[in-house]
Design a protein that fits this description.
Helix content is about 35%, strand content about 40%. The protein has helices at about 20-35, 65-85, and strands at about 5-15, 45-50, 55-60, 90-105.
């Protein structure tokens, strides 16, 4: 039986070379576009640009938290890879920390 599981993936990033807040925002916009392109258009984003922090939230139908988390992280990593590897003029942003947790229904 599948249930709805609310997830949040928190990430902090670094850039090499150092990027601007505007470049980080454009990078996150591209990540969201890539998530939509692979069918994950239901992701919400919260960010603190100056801290290079992003939180991606979604609801996943799955049998349990582990399956939901694995599927979401696979899609998120795919979108991150697509956003960072195809734009040569941008600084490289890569996660320096990440944490995924289950959210309680509101």
């Amino acid at each position: 039986m599948k249930i709805e599981i609310r997830l949040a993936a928190e990430m902090t990033f670094f850039s090499d070379p150092e990027g601007t807040d505007e470049q980080f925002e454009a990078f996150l916009d591209e990540v969201m576009d890539q998530l939509g392109a692979i069918g994950r258009a239901d992701v919400d984003l919260a960010a603190r640009l100056t801290e290079r922090y992003a939180e991606f939230e979604t609801t996943v139908e799955a049998a349990d938290f582990n399956i939901a988390g694995a599927g979401f992280m696979m899609d998120l990593r795919t979108a991150l890879h697509a956003a960072g590897c195809n734009t040569a003029e941008w600084p490289r942003f890569a996660p320096s920390q990440q944490h995924i947790r289950e959210l309680q229904p509101s």
